[in-house]
Structures are given as C-alpha cells and as structure tokens.
Amino acid sequence: MFPEKRWLNKEFRGLLEQNIFANFKLVLETHFMQMRLVLKSGEQSLPFMVWSAGQREFVPLLLGLYWLLPSLPFTHRSRIKWVVLEELEMGLHPRAIETVLLIVLELVVRGYRVCLSTHTAQVLEALWALRNLRANRASPQALLNMFDAPVTPSLRRLAETVMTKQIKVYYFDPTSGATRDISALDVDSEDVGEDGWGGLSEFSGRVNAAVARAVANAERVGHA
Hints:
It is built from eight helices and seven strands; from the N terminus they run αβββαβαβαααββαα. The protein is of the alpha+beta class. Strand 2 (34-41) and strand 3 form a beta hairpin. The mean pLDDT is 89.
C-alpha cells in the first residue's frame, strides 16, 4: 500500500519514505486467515502495535490522502469542497510534519478548501514564512527550500500556485470564549493572542528572553 505509484506523486512518496516510513513498505498481508497492515523491510514485518506513534497516527490520514490526491495532476474530487484536519502533527517528528504540510499545500492547489487545527508552532511558522515570502516576492524555489523539497516541475507549480492563495489564521481564546483573526501573525502586535500566536510561541519567547538576559549579565560581569 506504500509506496504505490497509483497514489500520490513520486516527490511526495519519496519524502514520506524518508521522513515517516524510514524505508519500510506498508503492506496488507494475510496472517492466519486475517488481514493486517504491517511495515515490512525484507523478511521483517512490524505489526501495528510496534509502529511509532507518528506512523500509527499518520496511516489513516495517508489512506484519506490517497483518495483525495490521485497521481494524475490537478485531479479533484468534485463533490468534496472542504478537507478538515485536526492536529496533523500528532506523534510526528518535525521533519515528518514538514512533509505532511507540503502535502496539505497540494490539497489547496487541487482546489480543496483546507481547515487545520494545530497545537504546534511549526505549522504557524510555515504560514508566517509563506506570508512573508509572498510579500517580498520570493521565488517558488524559496518555498521549496524551506520544506527541503526537491525542485521539480510539479513541485515548482505547487509553490507558484500556493503563493497566490489566501491564508487565514484564527485563535480561540479559552478565557473569553471568543475567536479572533490573527492572520498577520505579527510577533510585535499589541494583541496578546497574535503576538504569541495563540500561545504557541510564548515558550520560545520566554526562552529567548531568558538567554538574552543571561548573556547580557555575563558580559556585564566580564567587563566589570
């Protein structure tokens, strides 16, 4: 079931193989009259319960992506308008999250409207970078370099198209129960929800501040 030429473009298959499946194949095999999904490398078969958390979380999403993204370019399931993904980062290594985000951009290019919920700053970092690359008229290659993706004609078309798409980001404030538009993702905003990206970047901000104070104190002591 993976890698399989009938589903997903070869660039995505290569990135998934590298960053999620670690060169294992996803196989549906018969075992004592039962069908089961295993990860297979040579004669070694790994059953579901010994997969990594990310592999267990991702495989159901992979099967959905197979249906939404046939290998033929620009194909779109006409009766599907929205694709809703909740916490796509669950269990995944940061490099794997990059790969899944790139595939999500392919959903956008194919004409789906995509709604993501997330608890990781990495997703918002990608959207913040995309906004700034577009505002500064960066080349499509800059976007692909950000994802460490191969610069092929199909991925270049993806990047060119994505740079024209509208992106909106909303933050749900659990204190007030209100939802606010923080699409600018302005880290210098006076809005508490926007400057900390809904709380997702607050820890990084405190880390930077703590290190900056420590460096300043050390320099002051050294010059004393």
